[in-house]
Amino acid sequence: DERFDVVHVHSYIFYMSNLAALARAVRNFGYVLNFHGGLNHKVMNDGSYSRRIWIKENIFDRTIGRLTVKLADKVLTVSRSDIPLIQDCFGVIPEYIPNAVCTEDFSYCQNDSRTVTYVGKLEKWKGLEELI
Questions:
Q1: Contact assessment for residue 51 and residue 27, using Cβ atoms and an 8 Å cutoff
Q2: Torsion sign (Cα): 15, 16, 21, 26
Q3: Residue 75 near residue 94 (C-beta atoms within 8 A)
Q4: Full-model pTM
Q5: Cys bridge to 30: 6, 57, 123, 125, which one at CB 3.0-4.6 A?
Q6: 54 vs 63, which has greater pLDDT?
């Protein structure tokens, strides 16, 4: 029998997140859910707004997704722009906690050159083409 105080899940769309929520419904432990941005799929006006997104927003988000979010003791988000979306879709008020970056670990050039770095999946909806 494992003993733990808190389960921290990343997103509500993953199967393991849904299982953690289900376990929370029957056991008493802390359950924290973290949104990592990217909730506004309407910005994909290039035809990539697919049937999968429609099913997620109109079926999953209203059933399993809502339960997974509502059962959380604390809901967090790294994106201020997602706060009203989370409130509207799930009826909870998330706490904003930005991703942490230690700026002291980076050095800056004294000349006019610029460096841009992207870390993430190469997915069209993330807007990498606009960055470039």
A1: no
A2: positive
A3: yes
A4: 0.72
A5: 6
A6: 63
